[in-house]
Amino acid sequence: MMKIATIAALVGSAAAFAPAPTGKAVTSLNAQEMSKSVPFLIHQPKTDGLIGSVGFDPLGLSDMWDIKWLQEAEIKHGRVSMLATVGFVATQFVTFPMFAGIQEQDSNMVPSAIGMSAMMQIIVFAGAEEWRTNQGKITMDTMFADEDRVPGDIGFAKDRLKNKSEEDINKLKLQELKNGRLAMLAIGGMIHHNFVTGVPLL
Fold it and tell me: Is residue 201 within 8 Å of residue 193, measured between CB atoms?
């Protein structure tokens, strides 16, 4: 009987130091809105209202970096990828006169075949164009120092948008974004196809 009383006393003493159960964690989780595109992740509010946004930000990058910088990066990578998908296929059928002596069916091997000098020309030209269109402001801290600077707007073919409504312009922006996203997936698939199979794409 004495042993039972002692054990009961010890249990009661230990319970006194145990944290009281609360519903804070559950309440906090329920209060947060979940992402529509990835339902098991928390919604990132900084992506709200952006053209082409479906609330997809699984890594929470919009909380770590300037959202305009991220938009600029996506648009530019999409544009480069759209050009790359065309170029990747074209190299199998078109050869520039200065590279007439190079016959390479695997597009993955073309950079090695044409040499470092030709690749450096592309890098230098792209860097110079980036510097020119941003007036030297190419870092995340300086690129959007002007609050009116629109991500992806480098002043190209703006005359084509003069007589279009805001709705029409936003539709064109959305089309560019979606095509760019598809192209990023496509060029990745093309490169890995050649790498894995060891044969040309077409």
Answer: yes
- Bridge partners, 33 (sequence order): none
Mean pLDDT of the chain: 83
pLDDT digits (tens, 9 = 90+) for 25-63: 444 445 688 888 888 888 899 999 999 998 899 999 999
CA distances from 26 to 30, 38, 41, 147, 194 (A): 6, 20, 15, 39, 49
Query: Which residues face 34 on adjacent strands?
Result: 42
CA-to-CA separations, 172 to 43, 67, 104, 177, 188, in angstroms, rounded: 26, 21, 37, 9, 24
Angle at 101 between CA 95 and CA 103, to 5 degrees: 65
Three-state helix/strand/coil letters over 88-140:
HHHCCCCCCHHHCCCCCCCHHHHHHHHCHHHHHHHHHHHHHHHHHHCCCCCCC
Alpha carbons 140 and 163: distance in angstroms, whole number: 33
- How far apart CA 51 and CA 23 sit, in angstroms, is 38
CA atoms within 13 A on the CB side of 91: 21
